[in-house]
Amino acid sequence: MTLPILSWCTGKEFMSISWWGDVTQSNKEQKIAENKHWKPARIQLFRQIRAALEKHAIEHWIDSGTLLGAWRDKGMIPHDSDTDIAIPGQQMHQAAEQALRQELPHLGFKHASYSGKLEVYDPHSPEVPWGENGDTWHLVSCDIDLYIRREDGWQQQYFNFGIENNRIPHELIFPLGQVEFEGEVCPAPRQTEAYLTLVYGYLGEDAVFDSTSNTFVRPVV
Questions:
Q1: How many domains does the chain have?
Q2: What's the rounded mean pLDDT across residues 103-130?
């Protein structure tokens, strides 16, 4: 599937600061303003999902941009458009879906073609099409990401940007630690900074996406 990735080196104004290439230096402030509007609903959804997972004793940790924002500033990255929660193992992931469907029947549920994730979303929020396989995402959503343990570490079931090639050592994740996110103490990988560095590369707020290495790097001055 072809994704709308922008080259990070085609000029400062076009440097992508997101995996998807949808947020660049030139439209960053516009995206921040848009996300500020949707943030309360996104955080409410996130808290509902977390409460349901806790009620059913589903092991999980906050992940991806949600974890990065928590590590940096204890909150959501201003230009981030959703939240992310990781679940270890296929069986636990299936149990998570069952628990969420049971506890939150008013929400929408959708499996993506490009990963093992489950998108949980507010069905009243706008649906945004993208890609070439008829995929969509919603403006108020949370990704429930699937991780599978391999012989050489944990692998996120996400088949873009080289993420599927990452192997995260068990000891970076377990036993789980904690991190604050939007006023709520959430489970997180034990060695959060090392975990994030392995996934993202450079973790500074000025990071831009390098589509050659599929990592985030310092911007070229």
A1: 1
A2: 92
